[in-house]
Amino acid sequence: MSPRPREPHSIGAHGKGAPERGLRPRSRRVELASAEERSEASLRLPLRERLALLGELQVLLESGIQIPAALAGLRAECANPRAAAVLDRLIARVSAGAPFSAAAAACGAAFPLATVHLLRAGEASGRLDEMLARLVAATEAEANLRSRLRSALTYPAVMAGVCCVVVAFLLTFIVPRFERLFAGKEAVLPAPTKILLALSSYFSRHGLVLLGLAVALAVALALWLRTPAARALLDAFCLRLPILGPILTRAALARSASTLGLMMQSGVPVLVALEHAAEVAGSAKHRALWGAVHREVASGGRLSAGLTTASGVPATVRQMIAAGEEAGFLDRVLVRIATHLSNEVERRLKDLASLIEPAMVIFMGIVIGFVVLAILLPVFALSRGAAG
Fold first, then answer.
1. Angle at 275 between CA 240 and CA 270, to 5 degrees
2. What CATH number did the domain enclosing 289 receive?
3. Are residues 107 and 145 in the same domain?
4. Which of 124, 175, 274, 347 could bridge 200 with an S-S bond, Cβ 3.0-4.6 Å?
5. Average pLDDT of each block of 10 consecutive residues along the chain (388 residues)?
6. Helix 244-265 crosses helix 228-240 at what angle (to 10 degrees)?
C-alpha cells in the first residue's frame, strides 16, 4: 500500500500547534462518513411504501416526465417522513449527475439490491418505465402474498389472545363473587367447580405476578426472535408443520422464482439472479436450496439439475423448469411458476382459514362453556336443595 500524502497542515510547515489543526479535517471527514452511514441505515421503506413510490414514479415516467421533474413532483406531494427522506436522497444524487439506479443504490436499505440491478438493466435498455412496471407488478404480488400469510397466521393468535383475556377476566372478577356463595359447601361441589375455584384463587393472589411474567416472557421472546439463530429455528419449525409448512415452502419458491424470472428477462446474468433469488427466499433452508442451485449452474450444470435433489420443491415445478430450459424460454416459465405458486398459496390459505375459524370458535366455546358450567352446576344444585 502506498503511503498517504501528507496533509497540507504539517508540523514542518506550521510549527508546534499545527498537529491539532492538521487533525481537524481528517476527524471532520470521519464524522461526515459516519453520519452518511447512519443516514443510509435510517433510510428504510416498508414494502407497501416502496410499492407506492415505484408505482407513482412509473406512472409519471410513462406520461413523458423526466426523472428529475418526476422526483421533484413526488417530493412536493409526499407527506410520509420516510418516503420524503428517500426522495431527498434520490433528488440529491440525480441532480449531481448520477443515474437513477445509482441513486437508488445510495439509499441503503430503501431499495433491495435486486431492485437496483433491475433498474440498472432498465436504464441500459432505455426502457426504465417498462422495468418499473414489471417491478411494481412483482412487488405488488409479493406484498399481497405477505399480507395473506400474515392474516392467516394472525387470526388464530388473536382469537387465542381474546380467549385468554376472557378467561382471565372471568377468573379474576366473576368467579370470586360466586366463591362466597359456595363457602362451606366445598364437600358437595362438583369437580369442575372445585378446579375453577382453585384457579380463580390462584389468579386472584398471583395475577399481577403472572401478568409481569407474561410481559417479560413476551419481550424476551421478541428480542430472541431478532437473532439469526432464533429465526432459523423458527423457520425450521414452521416448515415442518403439516399444513403450514407446504404453504410457506410454496410462498418462498414463488418469491424466488418471480425474482429470478424477472431478472433473467431483464438481461441480468443468471448467477447474479440466483444470488438474489436466494436472498428473497426468506428461510435458511430455501437460501441453502438456491445456493446449491447456484453452485450447480456455476459448475456448468443446469438449473433444473440443481433442483432435483432439493426437498420440498414440487415435482411439477421441476418439470416446468426443465421444459423451459429445453425450449429456451426459462425466464417466462419462471414468471409463470411464480404466478402459479402464488395462486396455489392463496387457495391453500383460504382452505386453512376455513378450517381455523370453526376450530377456534369450537375451542373458545369449550373453554368458556366449561367456566359457565362449573359456575351454574352448583347453583342449580343449591336451588334444588333450597326448594326441596
1. 120
2. 1.20.81.30
3. no
4. 175
5. 38 38 41 44 76 89 89 89 90 91 87 85 82 85 81 79 81 78 72 83 80 88 85 83 85 87 85 86 82 88 80 82 87 89 86 82 84 80 60
6. 110
Tell me, what DSSP letter sits at residue 186?
G
Indicate if 155 and 287 belong to the same structural domain: yes
DSSP-based three-state secondary structure for 318:
helix
Are 91 and 185 part of one and the same domain? no
Ramachandran angles phi, psi of 65, nearest 5°: -80, 140
DSSP codes joined into one string, 82-128: HHHHHHHHHHHHHHTT--HHHHHHTTGGGS-HHHHHHHHHHHHHT-H
If one counts the domains in the chain, the total is: 2
Dist. CA 174–CA 184, nearest whole Å: 19
pTM beyond 0.70: the answer is: no
Kindly state whether residue 118 falls inside one of the protein's structural domains: no
HEC letters along 18-87:
HHHHHHHHHHHHHHHHHHHHHHHHHCCCCHHHHHHHHHHHHHHHHCCCCHHHHHHHHHHHCCCHHHHHHH
